[in-house]
Amino acid sequence: MSTIQTDTLVERDRQNVWHHISPYNEASPPTVFTEAKGAWMTDHKGNKVLDGMSGLWCVNVGYGREELAKAAYDQMIKMTYTPMTQSHQPAIDLAEKLNEYLDDDYMIFYSNSGSDANEVAFKIARQYHQQNGEPSRFKFISRYRAYHGSSMGALSATGQALRKYKYEPLVPGFLHVAPPDSYRRPEGMSVEEFNIQKAQEFEEKIIWEQKETIAGIIMEPLITGGGVIIPHPVYMEKVQEICNKYGVLLIIDEVICGFGRTGKMFGHMHYKVKPDIISMAKGLTSAYLPLSVTAVRKDIYETFKKSEENSHFRHVNTFGGNPAACALALKNLEIMERENLVARSAELGKRLQNELADLNDHPHVGDIRIKGFLMGIEMVEDKETKEPATNERVGKIIAECRAKGLIIGKNGDTVAGYNNILTLSPPLSCTDEDVDFIISTIKDVLNHNT
Ligand code: PLP
């Protein structure tokens, strides 16, 4: 492709495409990618980069899998579309397959995105309480720093103020508590004590808000986009205990943590919890097609079955459960099983842990947090004071990784000043050579920025 054509591509983009959550930057136009295979992407100028973020933490089996395209193609030719007011075999097969991982305890509701899956979770929770004789329960509690999506309800649950303030007022009834950010716990307090204290914030909130008004708690098994905040197991146990005590539904957002990302099929499986509702998206299809799921405990579903009381769930979306997307998701799960990608994720997490341990001595590395093939490195200006690293310092590291051919991310929360966490979430299908490259690039760049 000639330079004139590629420049034209960027210019055409500039004229017509409004980009997601990206400030306009005259000097630095968006990269136009043209090809991708495995963990590697090629841009319109022919540069190759390893995608250490799997797109938006989603291309879990890697790029360019022909058998996924074929599964979708075959289904499109056979039977293109049926609304989910009716049914079709890929939806049935996929629901059964998901239930294999979930002890057959859940009903599967299909939508299109992670935000959709969470909206459905909120609506089901509110309706469930109404039909279960507790109509006053309408509020949800989530954590500051967590991200749960961009639609109005999911954004209301999100605990990152900068994403929200220009779109307010949002949906009433969404409350927040502090996350279990163990790295910043008070001096002298153990991680366990601190996590118990943070879990108790849910109980305090429930009591202050009047316990009969609380419908649910929504949380990721570990906060991903808010800066990879991994709870101590005692935190999740305590949250489960509080949900049980107050009749509050536990909604677990597995949009990123699901499908092997943390070294188990679902992130909550690291902890002693039994979610009432689970939202899934991203890795469900490895982002080859849009599809999401809200998995709801069968005992909750019972209250929606009494059709004589008009108690069905009044929610429909046109594309959710699209047959090609369901067929593709099944093939995606088949690949994950065949290639042992969940175990591989756990193994790669251990590799990161061992081979990046030296970075703990780096003057600007405050904390390294890893669960499966998912990592956050909290960068600081000063290890003693834990003052968050400046945007300049973090931006330089990301740019240098990129110049060497590795995409990594930056996450955290801008309002609170913690936008200082380098993130890594590569395809679980990375080869050993890919992982060598990721590790050596991160080490080189950090050691060059002391
Ligand atoms: N929940 C979590 C934890 C997410 O990270 C995201 C997206 O990044 C969402 C929900 C929303 O998913 P989507 O972008 O598919 O609407």
Automatic annotation (TrEMBL):
Protein's name according to its UniProt entry: Aspartate aminotransferase family protein
Coiled coil: none
Organism: Siminovitchia fortis
Pfam families, per database record: Aminotran_3
InterPro entries named among the record's database cross-references: Aminotrans_3, Aminotrans_3_PPA_site, PyrdxlP-dep_Trfase, PyrdxlP-dep_Trfase_major, PyrdxlP-dep_Trfase_small
UniProt-listed CDD domains: OAT_like
Gene Ontology MF: a single term: transaminase activity
Gene3D superfamilies: Aspartate Aminotransferase, domain 1 (3.90.1150.10), Type I PLP-dependent aspartate aminotransferase-like (Major domain) (3.40.640.10)
Keyword terms, alphabetized: Aminotransferase, Pyridoxal phosphate, Transferase
Entry-linked NCBIfam families: PRK07678.1
Highest taxon, organism lineage: Bacteria
Protein family per UniProt: Belongs to the class-III pyridoxal-phosphate-dependent aminotransferase family.
